[in-house]
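Database export, one record per block. Field names are fixed; values are copied verbatim from the stored entry.
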Amino acid sequence: MQQTSETTYRLFDYGRPLEMHLDDRVDVAVLEPWVPHVGPGIVEHGRTILVEGPKFVLERWIGGDRMIRLPHGETGWLVPVRGSGDVDGVAWQAGDCLSVSGSAVLTASSDADLLLAYPGDTRM
């Protein structure tokens, strides 16, 4: 995902006669030291965070049985890439897309490869 911007603040332009935007650059500068964001990755066996915020979280799961616990009122989307199984008794197979709300029991074949997306900026 990306967001385009037509904003350029020039500090140096190799002799070309363009505005340098020095005051604008100083106005938007963050003066605190940069702290890298802890990146997504494996959080437990069979569960990898691919994207975490700011608008949604995307997880990748391997097969097996587990609980899906979404915050009250939130809907998540389960996209099976490989395998088959069911969520609260609703059968699915690779290529389907299921919406899930609240808590649900997920049963997935051992060869399953699943994506789960849900709104928010923090993993559940």
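Remark 1: Helices lie at 22-28.
Remark 2: The first strand starts at residue 42 and ends at 44.
End of record.
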